[in-house]
Amino acid sequence: MTLTQHVRNGWYLGAWSDEIGRTLKQRWITDIPVCFYRLPDQTVTAVEDRCPHRKYPLSLGHLDDDGTLQCDYHGYRFDGQGVCVGVAEQADKPKAALRRFPLVERDGAVWIWPGDPELADESLLPDTSWLNDPNWTHVHGVVPLKARHLLLLENLLDLTHETFLHPTSIGNAAVAATPIDVTVDGDRVGFSRRMIGIEAPPFYEKSCGLTSPVDRWQDGDFYPPGIFVLNIRVAATGTEEPDGFHMKVLYGMTPGRGNETHDFYALGRDYLIDDEELTKFQHEQQLAVMQEDVDALEAQEIMYATDPGGTAESSIKSDLAALRGRRAVAKMLTREQQADGTRPRASA
């Protein structure tokens, strides 16, 4: 299995809205250096972070009040559309322009399409209205991961790992013991797990005030190449919908430079939304769970990186959603390579 290639014709979470302002911000995405910033009208723009003169990072330059971006190596200046408008202190006006990326800013998230701009389709983005819904509250952030993004993808599509990696928080034996139903709709992969009459994991005991037995639902959707949304419902056994405690977790699995990944996350809930102590507790728990995943995935990355021959893998029924997700990304990459006539791209 080759895991070192990136689909570019797809949406990735490039930044949270509150990360982007009038300060130039560099972030590598699918092995492309990207410079994010806001124009005077507060719209977000993203350009390739290489000056066309001598490839100096534009993010090391500065932004004028009128939105003009200046490269601080030799003074090339670019307007809000990325067109060179001259060179500081010189009479030259080169015919040069920056590569600009399609962006969608919605519900506090900035989505980027690093591939062919003519293929960028906003309808492929998931519904994230809960991030801006007054009946919900959420926390969000980004965690660096020194492992390829497909390892994170498989981690999220096979939640049986919760039993073993997260036994003191969100995991218990019921997760690994309960089978999933898997659906495929085009490139999109979904799964559903219904755990009925189980012991309440510690996280849900503390954050929902529940005692065992409980019913716990997990409904996950993967939007290739890098978006995952998990819908969670926990309630006292026998409680009918819509009653119960509902949470959502959004992950933006964005390839960075080489085999590094930006692990964006948002955790939301529809209950006790004004309880700041609960929000703090849930955020701390989210970060602790993610750190356990990071530790596991970075150890896994070393094993893949030192196994160039690709030792045969063993799979079981619980791997089905992860295998379907892996296949969806592989198909997207194949289509992309066939369309542009390129050889497979390997990470730098």
Automatic annotation (TrEMBL):
InterPro entries from the UniProt entry: Cholesterol_7-desaturase (IPR050584), Rieske_2Fe-2S (IPR017941), Rieske_2Fe-2S_sf (IPR036922), VanA_C_cat (IPR044043)
Transcription listed as a keyword: no
Coiled-coil spans in chain: none
Entry superkingdom: Bacteria
Keyword terms: 2Fe-2S, Iron, Iron-sulfur, Metal-binding, Monooxygenase, Oxidoreductase
Pfam families: Rieske (PF00355), VanA_C (PF19112)
PROSITE patterns: RIESKE (PS51296)
The Rieske domain, residue ranges: 11-112
One Gene Ontology term of the molecular function aspect: monooxygenase activity
Name this protein carries in UniProt: Vanillate monooxygenase
